[in-house]
Amino acid sequence: MCRYSIFLSFSGDDNDHCQNRISKFYNNLNSILKSKLGLSKSEEVIFYSKEIEIGNHWTDELKESLNTSKVFLYMHSPSYYKTEYCGKEWLFFSERMEKIKILYGFDTVGLMIPVIWFHEPNLPECVCNIQYNQMQFGSVYEEKGLNYLMRIKSHEDDYEIFIERFSDFLIQKIRETKDLPYHVIDRGIESLGNPFSDEEKPKTNIVSKGFKRTKYAQFAYLACTDGEVQRQIDEIYGDESNDWKPFYPQIDLKISFITQSVAAKVELDCKHLDNFDEPKDIIDDSRENNRIVLTIVDPWSVNLPKYNSIIKKCDEINSYNFAMMIPFNLEDDETRDNFEDLNSTLLNVCRSKSANTVQQYFNNKIYSYNNFCDELAATLIHVKNRIAENTPYIRKLSSNKYNTKPELIVRSRDTINEES
Prior knowledge:
Blueprint: E1 6-9, H1 12-17, H2 21-37, E2 46-47, H3 60-68, E3 71-76, H4 78-82, H5 84-104, E4 112-116, H6 139-144, H7 146-151, H8 156-176, E5 205-207, E6 216-222, H9 255-265, E7 269-272, H10 279-288, E8 292-297, H11 305-315, E9 322-327, H12 333-337, H13 339-349, H14 351-354, E10 362-366, H15 369-389, E11 392-396, E12 408-412, H16 413-419
């Protein structure tokens, strides 16, 4: 069965009412993608299916494509959000991305991409958080939508510009995204609700008892201070561990400033942990309060007894609210020359963590400042999501005439999902 990189989701009404322009768009985009990717005529990039009438059988190929595609394109329009099967496709892919992110630690942000067909100001709540800079594909497209570009002859050049830029954008997405694990959601497509319909919203009131939203990321820096280790560049370390400059001299910023800046970008407040001698106690307490704990380790400090003992304690801790990151500045000649020895020492100390296949919990594959900032943001989001997944929820059941008080049943979110 053919494996597609992109799944195209659209309303058949939009195609029928607009002289099959969506079909033309598919043909144009698919052709240029195949050319740029060097594929043969028999190979396809985009899965495209004609309208599925409500009640018709969902083909195995459609299900397979939703389970294997890397990117989900959906044609943003009023008709799209009123079409039941479009909602089912959207929800299926969304749930698949969420499960892959949770179970495998893959970064799936940005793989559901809206294509403006017609503007629709009243978006369903589930779609509101998906945003893209549409201006990059042309100002006329951003203002009027793709159907307008294809309908008005004077904008043929704008349409060509859109196809050229959008195809480059998609190729970058395809190449940047790993082959995602094949992960089938628990329910079949036909049994899914329509996330775009107000009638499909849950009627039960699910609340959390004493729930504390994850607002804080706590950082422990296991890095030596000035004079504790001999380096060719003295300015890398300071009076405190949080004065460490991991990417000096290329980037003259302290680790505490870098982490605070990245945490703010993912809407988390930053707290620096001064005493981390007993990490398990801190991590356990933080877990009870829905707080992230992230340890940043200086590879040059791993062999020092003061830090080595703490790192070994961290290696024994397996908690969903805790992660370790070890940045190597390979733009620094001294670190680059000693990388093999430094990394070997680290892996020898962190035998348990290094065997963990989820990179967001132990990441020693960080080699530059930009790489560190990207990985730190991804790790914070991943751990924050894992905390949410493990937060106890309470389902408030409707009381009847025989019960004067509602019944409260404590369940995890996983349990609630299994029952859905």
